[in-house]
Amino acid sequence: MQYVELLIAAFAAFMLGFGWYTALFGKEWQRLTGITDEEAASGMAVTHGLAFLMMFILAYGVNFIVNMHELAEQTFVHGAFHGAMMGAMYCLPALIIHYAYQRKPLKLFLIDGGYLVIFMGLMGGVLGALKLG
Question: Model-level pTM?
C-alpha cells in the first residue's frame, strides 16, 4: 500500500471540510453547536491535527475495501461508491446514535452526516483514481 495515496485522500477530505464548515455551512453549524468564533479558533492546531489523523485512518479503511477488487476495476467512481457506502453504512448510524442521545437537531445531523458521506466518497474516489495513475 502506498501511504502517499492515503495522505492525498485524507488531504482531499480535509479540504472539503474546510469549504463545508466555512463557506457552505460554517455559520449555521456554529449556531447549532453553540460554538463561538473564539472557541472555534482556540486549539485549532490540535483539533485539525487530530481530524487529519482520523481522516488518514478512515482512508486506510476505505482503501482496504477498494483493494478487494481487481486493479482494473479501481476507478474514481468505483472508489467513490465504496467510500460513500461506508459513510452511509458505518459513519451515519454511529452519528445517529450519538445525536439521538444528545438530542442534537436534525439540521446539525444533515450538515455533519452529509459531510461524512461525501468526504468518505471523495476519499474512495481519490484512492480508486490513484490506482491507475
Answer: 0.91
